[in-house]
Specification:
single chain; 368 residues; Chitinase A, domain 3; five-stranded antiparallel β-sheet; two-stranded antiparallel sheet; 10 helices; 11 strands
């Protein structure tokens, strides 16, 4: 049975996702034919639109710097390092060591500061200050005692923040890193498109800029959508819309609870940290907001004649498949029903329209 997911859930994660779809498969339609989801209501009866074009959004657009490109390349070089056994037994910076360690707080061993057979790259700053440097110059087979202090802002376990600790560390083995240099050979082995160092730098710059632009787009779309919804008046919801949305959401939670092997109430308590009554009150509030948002987006779509074409839907599905690891469009359509996919991609088109018609100003010039 195909999933039918609320569009707002899909939108929360181009990273995690839900989508929307069309009412038919459109196999015999031309690319210019519009694709719509059949509704049993006229959205104009429920929504009075306010201002939704020209909305001001404060955002400082970012441009990738040379330093960021260099830093990313350095990270890529470090990721390409391999380690191999060596006759040398004395630990040096950059070596990967295998260690057993036991940490004592106030003279007592703690499980959370103890491990066996742990791999550690010296100089990676994985452990607290002084741990890695304290092993440099010592030999395989040696047990090293390190008297250190957890940092005050130790977020991994706040109960250890600022506490003195004594580690007893046994060095089991070491491997030395390979030498990896930025040259054309490295580029050819690690890039699908670049063949030279200069091409690789431009590839990295483009990738980083696309990431910045994607972040900006997501933020701008979120802000302008929120304002457009706030500016609109939703007179009421179509009969049954809220009830259906609540039912669908709760069914998803019940399915998740079943998959986890726990009861519905227990799942809500452990996963959401609230009682069933509080949870269902919040679900109703959430779904009320979602339904209002959905109606406003539909109203804008109608007012601006933004219905998806078959070609746009096909292109959007293909891009989503590529970006999110699906094997094919068929696999995507097996996962989500057609209406869900169409509505999601329709919403993305409206969001892009709102973004393109927004006024983006830097914080230094904001009137807010």
């Amino acid at each position: 049975m195909k999933k039918k997911i609320a569009i707002i859930v899909l939108s929360c994660a181009l990273a995690a996702g839900a989508l929307s779809g069309c009412s038919g498969n459109g196999a015999n339609s031309s690319d210019s034919k519009t694709v719509t989801v059949k509704k049993d209501y006229n959205v104009d009866d429920y929504v009075k639109l306010g201002e939704y074009k020209g909305i001001e959004v404060t955002y400082d657009l970012q441009t990738v710097t040379d330093e960021e490109v260099d830093a990313q390349i350095q990270s890529n070089l470090e990721s390409a390092v391999t380690y191999s056994d060596v006759d040398r037994t004395t630990v040096q910076n950059g070596d990967k060591v295998n260690i057993d360690y036991e940490g004592f707080i106030d003279g007592e061993s703690r499980d959370e500061t103890t491990a066996k057979g742990s791999d550690l790259v010296i100089g990676s700053n994985t452990f607290i200050s002084g741990f890695e440097t304290g092993l440099i110059g010592h030999n395989v087979g040696e047990m090293v005692t390190l008297d250190l202090t957890f940092p005050e802002d130790y977020n991994a376990d706040t109960s250890l923040s600022g506490k003195p600790v004594q580690f007893k560390v046994t060095i089991n083995s070491l491997q030395e890193p390979s030498k990896v240099e930025l040259n054309d050979d490295f580029v050819k082995e690690n890039s699908k498109t670049s063949k030279t160092v200069e091409e690789y730098k431009e590839e990295i710059r483009k990738s980083l800029q696309e990431s910045y632009d994607s972040q900006a787009s997501s933020y701008i779309q979120y802000m302008v959508q929120s304002q457009a919804v706030s500016n609109a008046t939703v007179k009421k919801l179509p009969d049954g819309m809220l009830e259906d949305a609540i039912k669908s959401f709760k069914e998803q939670i019940k399915s998740a609870a079943k998959s986890a092997g726990v009861e519905y109430k227990e799942y809500i308590s452990s996963y959401y940290g609230m009682s069933e009554g509080t949870f269902e009150t919040q679900v109703e509030s959430y779904e009320q907001s979602y339904c209002e948002q959905k109606l406003v987006m539909e109203a804008i779509c109608k007012a601006e004649k933004l219905d998806l074409t078959q070609g746009e839907l096909k292109e959007a599905e293909e891009k989503y498949v590529k970006d999110n690891g699906y094997e094919s469009v068929d696999a995507l359509e097996e996962s989500y029903d057609a209406d869900t996919l169409t509505e999601y991609f329709q919403q993305q088109k409206v969001l892009k329209f709102l973004e393109d018609n927004a006024t983006v100003v830097p914080s230094s010039q904001s009137s807010n």
